[in-house]
Amino acid sequence: MKRIFLRFTAVFAFFLLLPGYAAASEADAALKATLKNEKALFSVAHDRSMTLDELWSLGCEEGPYMGKEHSRFIVVDMDRDGVPEVVLDPGASIVLRYEDGMVYAYQFGSRSMQMMRKDGSYHGSNGASAGVYIRIKKFDGKTFEEEFLGEYDESDGEYKILGNSVSKEEFDRMIAELIDKNFAEELEFTEENIEKW
Question: What pLDDT digit, counting tens, does each position of 85-115 carry?
Fold first, then answer.
């Protein structure tokens, strides 16, 4: 009887995990096709469909992007839903997110998405002595919601964790607990790296 129960439990667990695995593998395939310009993306900033090459040629508010040969990408589950996103860093970050058959491209300004961690948290710079630690709470089609984990301005001596003022010592200790200490792996933008992730 115990053996039958264990088999039933294993089969039940498999079917519970299957939808998440299927969604992740569907997302992987769509994101890889987008990176290779075989599938169009929807640029949220431009409110229209285009290829990744077209998006790169349009650039962002700060100007044109560097070419692919100078780019890197990171595969990380930014919102921790079991489905990966791709973060491109061609001068200013682009996040590619798969949802309901569509790959959405979100553009971020220069220095607003740096030091990506394995848990999807990242650092944004507001200047030489000020910055924020952020995590995406949720993607929803053309929109997303951010969570500000920590903010600091060393010139003013202001430090905040989850919106509450703290001392520098508390900030350093608490931010280390809120973000992953491990940086996500950056890959060169090559066909080989796109295929092997």
Answer: 999 975 568 999 999 999 999 998 888 899 9
- CA separation for the pair 112, 109 (Å, rounded): 5
Identify whether the C-beta of residue 93 lies closer than 8 Å to the C-beta of residue 86: no
The whole-model pTM stands at: 0.82
Domain span holding position 144 = 2-196
Distance CA 192, CA 186 (A): 14
Number of structural domains (the chain) is 1
Q: What residues contact residue 147 under an 8 Å CB cut-off, 6+ apart?
A: 134, 135, 136, 137
